[in-house]
Amino acid sequence: DDHVVEIGPGQGAITQPLLDTHCQLDVVELDRDLVERLNTQFSHIDRFTLHSADALTFNFAALEHGQALRVIGNLPYNISTPLLFHLLSQAPHIQDMHFMLQKEIVDRLQAQPGSKQFGRLSIMIQLYCHVEALFDVDPECFHPRPKVMSSIVRLTPYAQQKYHIDDLVLFETIVKAAFSQRRKTIRNTLKNICDDLTFEAAQIDPNSRAEALSIDDFVRLSNQLSKQKS
User: Fold this and answer.
1) Which of 1, 40, 100, 123 could staple 74 via S-S, CB 3.0–4.6 A?
2) For the structural domain made of 168-229, what CATH number should be given?
């Protein structure tokens, strides 16, 4: 009885198996040739709805009718990050998301402070979701064979916001600036945003690099700066 949304069904490789589970299935496909093919294959099924649209601008929230969405897809590398951010903006309407991504991206999604993979994407995703890397998919599983390893990841939006942030725009600005030059200390990357008194009040060492700070550290710094501005 789940309401599933498939992003980029392509030629319908997993669309039919999904429909076999008797779920309500909405699919979002941009390629008009594939839209015609999918309509021919599945339009006779009343639980199937096709949306000829760009997932990067699609209003997923409009699909929810009292039941949170379960979003799935095999996401192309070039749109994976902006699409994830777009979906996060509609997280209250989503139960969970299962995606196949390049393993490199999944490593970044679940990265922890202190690792080279930890960065803006790690923070912004973990701010809203619990991240679980489920399993890898070898290049041999595809035709044509890609040059990279893929991974399946589950993203589960928190039912209640895990972190209290006074000014989300300010928080995003700080995180983006902090990781803009990873080799520099945050005193340097945030010199146009924070001074040493702000770092001291937030109990943050200004000589740290961004990757050494936890999400809680960034939240504390953002809220301290917001308090000083108000």
Assistant:
1) 100
2) 1.10.8.100
Compute the distance between CA of residue 14 and CA of residue 29 in angstroms, rounded to an integer: 14
Given 3.20.20.150, 3.40.50.360, 3.40.50.150, 3.30.530.20, which CATH number is that of 3-157?
3.40.50.150
> Along the 230 residues of the chain, how does pLDDT read in single tens digits?
899 999 999 999 999 999 999 999 999 999 999 999 999 999 999 999 999 999 999 999 999 999 999 999 998 888 999 999 999 999 999 999 999 999 999 999 999 999 999 999 999 999 999 999 999 999 999 888 988 999 999 999 999 888 999 999 999 999 999 999 989 999 999 999 999 999 999 999 999 999 999 999 999 999 999 999 87
How deeply is 33 buried, as exposed, middle or buried, from its count of CB atoms within 10 A (0-12, 13-18, 19+)?
A: exposed
Give the position of tokens 């998301």. 97
**Buried b or exposed e, range 44-76, using 16+ CB within 10 angstroms:** eeeebebbeeebeebebeebbeeebbbbbbbbe
Q: What's the whole-model pTM score? A: 0.92
CB-count exposure of residue 164 (10 Å: 0-12, 13-18, 19+)? exposed
Q: Do domains 3-157 and 168-229 have the same CATH topology?
A: no
Spatial distance between the Cα atoms of 55 and 202, rounded to a whole number of angstroms? 39
Q: Which of 166, 156, 148 is nearest to 131 (CA)?
A: 156
Of 165, 212, 168, nearest to 186 by C-alpha is: 212
